Amino acid sequence: MSLHTRGGLFTALFDDAAMYPPADTKMPAAVRQHARHRLSWYADTVGPFVCHSRRLAELAGHVDALGLEPLPVAAVVSEGISGLADLQASAARFDALRLTAVEVPLKHARRADALRALEPLRAAGVPCYLEIAIAQVDDRAVHELSAAGLRLKLRTGGTSIDAFRTEAELAVPIVRCAAERLQFKCTAGLHNAVRHRDEQTLFEHHGFLNVALAARTAAATGSATATAAELAERDPFAVAARVHELGERDVAAIRAMFCSFGTCSIDEPIADLQQMGLVHR
Known about the structure:
single chain; alpha/beta; TIM Barrel; eight-stranded parallel β-barrel; two-stranded antiparallel ribbon; 12 strands; 19% strand; globular
């Protein structure tokens, strides 16, 4: 195995969201598939298993049944901060699971209330992501999250055209994160390495390598225009060349911001990286 990680560019970059759209894999198959990823030649690229917080007991049962080691889990609290109260205690009940992240949408809650609700988990050392609509990620929101030791979750796509943001729209929160050294993850729509138009839906999808390069540009320049240009690049050869040019400091700067992204098919990003000559079995 040879992974062109450039000091960790792809390490734990792919959060396994197989149970979420568009794959919607049933839990038993999703857990077995995750175990396969964990034993593969690209295992270092695999992040936690993404699961709704209400299904942790069910997940623990499947992990126990397969005799797996404790499974790193990112718990999604989709109902918002009202579902956080018992999460830490309930997660601790399951020896088969290891809570490595919590993701919660802000929805209609006040940001101050969300920060207070997440503080016990953050204080316990669990990385906490607050999902805020991209249009609502202003300077104050980014500053408050950074000061509170939280992270930002950015929704970059979905199952409808309304869920997708343009390059210019996504560039703005990335630049703001760079200014405050705020870590972020992305969710939905990042199925492939490079920006493209899906042949079936005709939706314009962001590429995860575009996002990585955009994070570096945002940190280096603070320019939304330059950051948007990285997000807009569609030529895989140009993107691959840019990745090959990255030094250790560049990779460190990228991963200091861009923590990971959720993908319902880890096989897809791995296949893209292989085709681009960025990872080799």
